[in-house]
Amino acid sequence: MPHLLVAGKLHPSGLKLLQGSGHSFDYVEAITEASYQEALPRAEAIVIRTQPLGAASIAKAPGLQIVSRHGVGYDAVDVAALNARGIPLCIVGDVNSAGVAEHAMMLILAASHRLIAADRATRSGNWAWRNGLQTHEVAGKTLLIVGFGRIGRHLAGMARAFGMKVAAYDPYVTDWPDLATRVTDLTEGLRAADAVSLHLPRADRVILGASELAAMKPGAVVVNTARGGLIDEAALARALAGHLGAAGIEVFDAEPPAQDHPLFGLENAILTPHNAALTVECAERMALASVQNVLDFFAGRLDPSLIVNKVS
Ligand SMILES: O=C(O)[C@H](O)COP(=O)(O)O
C-alpha cells in the first residue's frame, strides 16, 4: 500500500478515514521545510494545505505519484515540476464553496453596515455613532463578481437573495448560468459596481491595481476571499483613505501579513486570517475529500474533473 504524507493540520475525520484505509502515513501537523526534508523521501502521495510545495521538495520524493490539495487554490504548488514527472494534482472541488461564499457575503454585509466600527463604538460608549448615517444596505446595489466559478456562483445566489443586482466578469466561462449579468469589460463593470468580490485563482498579475480601484464609485466596497496578489494592497490602502467606502480582505500577498501592513491602520478595512474555508463543516469536508481523492487515485477511480494539471 502506498505511503502518504499529510502536510499540515487535518480535521480528525480525515485522519480517521486514512487510518481505516490501511495506508501508512506521516502526519506533520505544522509542516516546515525541515519536516519536508525528513518525510518527503517516503511520500508516494501528499495531502497538502496551502504551504508551498516547490520543485526542490518535489524532487526529494522520488516515489511521488499524486498530490492532493486540501482546498481549491494551488498557486503554492509547483505545477510544472509535477507535470514534468506526470504526477497529477487534484483539488477538492465544490466542498468549500459554501464556507468561502458565506464569508464573502459576510464581508460585503459587514463592510456595508460597518459592523466592526459599530461594535467598537458600542463598546467604547460612543452611542451617538448610531446617528452618523454612515452605513448602507446592500439591497438594490450592484455586486460585481470577478471569477465566476463554483464559489462565485454560490455567492451570486446569496447576493440575489439579499436583493442585490449581480453582474460577473469571467472571460473563461463558456456555460454562463442565469445567475448574473455578464460583463465583458472589467473596468466598465467596476465603474457600475457598488461592491466587487474576487473569486479567481492567484494570477501572475494584479487584477485590482490603482487604475481599476480609481474606476470604482465613491463609497464602493472591495472584498477579496480568493488569493493575495490579486489586489495591489498599497493602492487599496490609498483608495480606502480616499474615495472607497470599505474593504473586506481575507487573503494577503504575503501571509501572515506584516504588522506594518498598510491596511492595518485603516478603520474601514475588515481583515480576516485566510480562514473562510476553515469553518468546522468545511474543514471536515476538505479533509475527507482530500484524503478520499488519494484513496480513489490508488483504486483507479479518481474523478478526472478534480485533476487540475496536464498529465497524460
Ligand atoms: O485557500 C484555500 O485553498 C483554502 O483555505 C484551503 O486552504 P488550507 O488547506 O490551507 O486550509
Automatic annotation (TrEMBL):
Protein keywords: Oxidoreductase
InterPro entries tied to this protein: D-isomer_2-hydroxyacid_DH, D-isomer_2_OHA_DH_cat_dom, D-isomer_DH_CS, D-isomer_DH_NAD-bd, NAD(P)-bd_dom_sf
Q: Does the keyword Oxidoreductase apply?
A: yes
- Tell me the ranges covered by the D-isomer specific 2-hydroxyacid dehydrogenase NAD-binding domain, including all copies: 105-276
D-isomer specific 2-hydroxyacid dehydrogenase catalytic domain span: 5-305
- GO MF, one example: hydroxypyruvate reductase [NAD(P)H] activity
Q: Name one GO cellular component term.
A: cytosol
| Organism per entry | Stagnihabitans tardus
Query: So what family is this one in?
Result: Belongs to the D-isomer specific 2-hydroxyacid dehydrogenase family.
Domain of life (superkingdom): Bacteria
Q: What is this protein called?
A: 3-phosphoglycerate dehydrogenase
